[in-house]
Design brief:
The protein is α/β, with parallel strands linked by helices. The chain contains ten helices and ten strands. The chain folds into two domains: 1-77 and 153-166 and 180-232, P-loop containing nucleotide triphosphate hydrolases (Rossmann fold); 86-151, no CATH class. The protein has a six-stranded mixed sheet, sandwiched between helices. A four-stranded antiparallel sheet has the order 2-1-4-5, covered by helices on one side. Strand 1 and strand 2 form a beta hairpin. Helix 3 runs parallel beside helix 6 and helix 7 (165-178) packs parallel to helix 8 (191-197). The longest helix is centred in the last third of the chain and has 14 residues, at 165-178. It is globular and about 45 Å long. The protein starts with a strand and ends with a helix. Bound molecules: adenosine-5'-triphosphate and magnesium ion (MG). Adenosine-5'-triphosphate (ATP) is lined by residues 11, 14, 16, 34, 36-42, 83, 189.
């Protein structure tokens, strides 16, 4: 569904991603792991056209998308939940969910009702301003907002950041539930969360992929965990 082919991305003169290639198959959950500042967010920004790669190619459903404007890329069916969530603090929960909604008339579309079924707490908080929600509720709102655009691919940047362990588990369960008819690409610092949801893992260091494997392989690979992630 998504393919990155030897992309090189820069911030002005600073070369951040180096000949980076990866694939996200349809209907899978793919997670990137890596320490701070290694390039995870930059990979997402490259895909979304926010910081387009200077060379290499990005394909979505077989079509080359690098070089397109960010809104055109998002309209192809890619939703983004940014690090820090990107919700509107001064809008209510319901307003946040409906303001960017798209494709509500398609069969099996994500609607307000379906998002409330997925996250019942959002229904209870429907008329609260988003800044009154807890971190976990804000993350649910951010995911709900993304679903309301009825994307084919959901890209999430560190969904567990700043969230209580119990809620991380709950969000992980929702991601697993979604993957039946959905493709998810996420960046995580939370090792256990990534391993519990992903079908496949890429480890990023200094703007390149240094390791790729299944979660089961990584679980038993003490050397890789130590070397690239500092976990054991
Ligand atoms: N706007 C920018 N201008 C210049 N350099 C940047 C910019 N944004 C990020 N960088 C640099 O690019 C590198 C990769 O950053 P990036 O945010 O992609 O890492 P990350 O893996 O997402 O880190 P984190 O886990 O902290 O979110 C870092 O060295 C960072 O300092
Ligand atoms: Mg980041």
């Amino acid at each position: 569904m998504l393919k990155l082919d030897k992309i090189n991305t820069y911030y002005f003169t600073r070369h951040v991603l180096w000949d980076l290639s990866m694939e996200v198959p349809k209907g899978s959950v793919v997670a990137m792991l890596g320490r701070n500042g290694m390039g995870k967010t930059t990979i997402m920004r490259s895909i979304l056209g926010l910081t387009p790669p200077r060379d290499g190619a990005i394909y979505f459903e077989g079509e080359q998308i690098n070089g397109l404007e960010p809104h055109k890329i998002s309209h192809k069916g890619i939703a983004y939940v940014p690090q820090g969530r990107g919700i509107f603090a001064s809008l209510t929960v319901k307003e946040n969910l409906t303001v960017g909604a798209r494709g509500q008339n398609a069969p099996n579309a994500w609607t307000l009702e379906r998002v409330y079924e997925l996250f019942p707490i959002l229904k209870e908080r429907e008329n609260f301003h988003a800044n009154l929600l807890s971190g976990g509720e804000q993350q649910m709102l951010a995911i709900g907002r993304a679903l309301m655009t009825n994307p084919k691919l959901l890209i999430m940047d560190e969904p567990s950041e700043g969230i209580a362990p119990l809620v991380i588990k709950q969000i992980g369960e929702v991601i697993c539930q979604l993957k039946d008819n959905f493709t998810v690409f996420l960046a995580e610092q939370n090792f256990n969360m990534a391993l519990s949801v992903a079908d496949y893992i890429y480890i990023i260091s200094n703007g390149t992929i240094v390791h790729q494997c299944t979660p089961d392989e990584l679980r038993c690979d003490e050397e890789t965990k130590q070397k690239w992630l500092g976990v054991s």
